[in-house]
Amino acid sequence: METNCTGSKNWISLPILTAAIVCTVAFALFLGVMFLEKDVKVSVDGTVQSYKTYKTTVGEFLTEKGIELGPEDKVYPGRDIKLKDGMTVTINKAVPIILTDGGVTKELKTTEKTVGDFLKASNIVLGDSDKVFPGLTAALVPYVNIKITRVTEKTVVEQKEIPYDVSKRENRKMDQGTTKVVQEGENGLAEVTYRVTYEDGKEKTREVLAERIIKEPLSKIIEVGTLGVLKTSRGDTIRYTKVLTMTATAYDATYESTGKKPGDKGYGITYSGIPVREGIVAVDPRVIPLGTKLYVEGYGYALAADTGGAIKGNRIDLYYDDPKVVARFGIQKRKVYILAD
Prior knowledge:
By secondary structure, the chain is mostly beta strands. Helices cover 14% and strands 45% of the residues. The termini are far apart. Residues 148-228 form the G5 domain. InterPro entries: 3D_dom (IPR010611), DUF348 (IPR007137), G5_dom (IPR011098), Resuscitation_pf_RpfB (IPR051933), RlpA-like_sf (IPR036908).
């Protein structure tokens, strides 16, 4: 029996030793690979997918799998965190929203879930009176329109004119249809304090807080003529203060009209004590005072100077010298003009 140089009787040939070493290394590499491979789950907005990877960090893994992130997207754990077997990587994709703040509109992206969370994350501060729609608890959906109305208040002091009023008064010495300004009007002046509310810089409401009169307005006074003007058939122009449509009759100095004969006491004398004549008329003094100057349509100028037992109310009795005229007169409607002084 042969012996090796050491004198040992048991020895292993070189090929066998080499094969053993190769197998051992291969097995070790296999085990190393087995231990280096990781099972990783990715949740994108709630949708989960499983992956296998040998990458070391979250960022390397995402790059390997072609999972792209926008600048506003969020990933947890962060890109620099080392991967572990069984890890779940959560990705929240940012959604586009439309924000109008104080009248300025822009498109943004966010991963926040509610309007309030978005405003907080964006460092958008609301004033006590500001308005936001939809409300702070409203859920964010793609392209939702969020409108912030900036509300401010300011105390404003202004002067304003107080318009003068116009008053009219009758002038019985002026013809109807004519006017005369006897006092010009002047506007007054007031100092008014307002609370003005602005929305996005534009005035929305104003409330009067105080008002102080600096100068009182001066009324404009206009006199208005009340005299009627009538052109008679003879071409005269008469001015009157009032016109009445009256029931007219006629009388004379005869016994049939007055119940008196020549020689009787008061014959030919009116109630007012003047002799009767054409141009004298009898009236009810409650309607036309005695002594009033008149113009009677179809009769002419007259003086209310007499009364009669049957002349009550809106009646007038016209005196004529001729009994025949009286007999033919009957009962008529006549316009009676009360003349101006």
